[in-house]
Amino acid sequence: MAKRKMILDLDTGIDDSLAIAYALGAPDVDLIGIIGSYGNVVVEAGGQNSLKILELLGHTDIPVYLGESHSSTSDHFDRMQVSADIHGENGIGQVDLPAPKRAIEKESGVDFLIDSVHKYGKDLTLVPTGPMTNLAAALKKAPEIATEIGNMTFMGGALTVPGNVTAYAEANINQDAEAANAVLTSPMHSTMVGLDVTLRTLLTKKETQQWRDLGTEAGEKFADIVDYYIQAYVDVNDNLGGCALHDPLAVGVALDPSFVTTIDLNMVVNYNKETYGRTIGDDNRLNEPTNVKVSVAVDKDRYLKTFMEYLTNLFKQN
């Protein structure tokens, strides 16, 4: 049992599933729970996908909680068509996995997060890879967790490259820019793993074939899931040559910050109509101590080697 604990806050689509696998395959952390969010799919579907992936990987011991079902400024969530195009209607590449034996927990994801910070303190790492709605709600309810938690590393944002849903906005931040701004302007320290680095960290069918060749159920299913993702990337942006490892890179950086080069910055998230979702330096706090490390370069070869080692070893066992 590792001293370090991790919670994933996911809108479980394909790269979120890879993030789960990375956290389970890493030898130096215990995944203690998953909080569901909305984004790639609706929150209930994401929770079920998390349970299915955990069961596929032999970890029915890990609980899944549901977080908020829509942004902090709306009363409902409409899934974007591009999410279905990239992740499949079911969120996991149209691959059919059995209904999970374990049920979603009754406690709310926000309360689970707050309780876990109080319990584990600096030993706890949180990795949100969807909207920041759950974390913003937790900070509003229990502001003390901002300085009690050990590590918060999130997938989202774009500083040195354009967004992927608008010229300014990355998809996770765009779902709830107000929540993201509340988090980034809070006392909480965080590391941003955005499009600046995730679009450089790619997986191809060469790697998924290695999983297929294992002859295990997990290897075959993950190969099928990710091959769908790779093809979706070809359809949307065939210049990349593979699929971006957005969410698992955030997990990797949370555990080993040396994968990336960062700059220290105080950040804001714009939520005006013209630049909604833009993550940018805060010109009102230029001379104040910084609380965000923004990833701007990545050691992609060393990361991919570690990624393949962790996941391939995990899939061998399942």
UniProtKB/TrEMBL annotation:
Task: Indicate whether Hydrolase appears among the record's keywords.
Answer: yes
**What keywords tag this UniProt record?**
Glycosidase, Hydrolase
Organism domain of life: Bacteria
Q: What GO terms are given for molecular function?
A: hydrolase activity
Per UniProt, residues of the Inosine/uridine-preferring nucleoside hydrolase domain are 6-304
Database matches in SUPFAM superfamilies: Nucleoside hydrolase (SSF53590)
This chain belongs to the protein called Nucleoside hydrolase
Name the source organism.
Answer: Levilactobacillus fuyuanensis
Provide the taxonomic classification: Bacteria, Bacillati, Bacillota, Bacilli, Lactobacillales
